[in-house]
Amino acid sequence: MCQLLGMNCNVPTDICFSFEGFCARGGKTDDHKDGWGIAFFEGLGCRVFLDDNPSSTSPIATLVRQYPIKSMNVIAHIRKATVGPVGLENCHPFKRELWGRYWVFAHNGDVPTLAVNPGLHQAVGQTDSERAFCQILNRLRQRFPQGKPPITDLYSALKTITADIAQHGIFNYLLSDGEHFFAHCSTKLCYIVRQAPFAAAHLIDEDLTVNFQELTTPSDRVAIIATTHLTDNEQWTPIKSGELLVFHNGLPLAL
User: Fold this and answer.
1) pTM metric for this prediction
2) Beta-bridge partners for 207
């Protein structure tokens, strides 16, 4: 199973602590050695780092861990290759433009029977994940040709598109345009919201503890979304199978 990691917050925040534990999962076993990537939204810009080497030994991952890039929306992925060979073009997250904004997508699972969807967006690599992302964007562009709609309309359309694609297999994914953050669970995904009063958190994959009270202000709020929980002393909320959540300013919206 691939591994997903996302962050959505109300102030620019670095993801160094969560990423430390997350990237340790890439390469410790043969299941997660087929590449990794991470995307940081910064205003209208988006930095993407990709490597087809295991994240636990990648010099690029070391750079990211040591370089505290602050962002309000981050998506990261560790790949277990199933569809498509190991290669940079098949590393998630994938990035495309829609409505004058960058969109970023990462997927865990397989949708092997999903057909190529005609439209502006086409896959560069060989993964069914990238095909699914392109289908999402093509159908959204077709549905809303004038630009990004209100979030309630966007959510409704995305929910329909997601349900159609999920019929082809397992479709856990993270998706963001830097303003809203979408998380869909097919089999396994969970999240935690960190806000005042902040406490210490301890990673499962690394012997590392951080006291967030020392690093935050009382108004800060951060949502972390992951395939499986990253810490062993916090209460993570499982996302239900078939559920699509939208996060904004560090909280799931009630839509």
Assistant:
1) 0.93
2) none
